[in-house]
Hints:
The protein is an alpha+beta fold. 22% of the residues lie in helices and 37% in strands. The N and C termini lie far apart (35 Å).
Amino acid sequence: MRKSCRCGSRESFSDCCKPLLDGRRSSVTPEQLVRSRYTAYALGGYGDYLLQTWFPATAKGLIAADLSVVTRNWTALKIFASGVDGNTGWVDFRATDQSASGPSILHEKSVFTCATGIWLYIGGEVLSS
């Protein structure tokens, strides 16, 4: 049985996020980039991928080794809406984290840019849930 991807797409990890995390494919939409970045954080060990998909001007001071460490127990990703206007994109999502004190939710509207055909994460606005 093929294991479903951590991003919640219902595809297998090997068909969904793994080719992106391994650098064999690039995200074709901002939503796909959110899903792959969520998976990178959830699994850990993909700090290089997170840096490579981060807009350089907003990634200053970040280190791949630090980004590779799992700091939260991410358990679910829900995409509410996404859109693209030329080379700019956005995704409204919620990511659930499970800790000993119970679940917490990160609700963010992320913003992206497409530079030379590659989608990059610029940043996000954390929204109250």
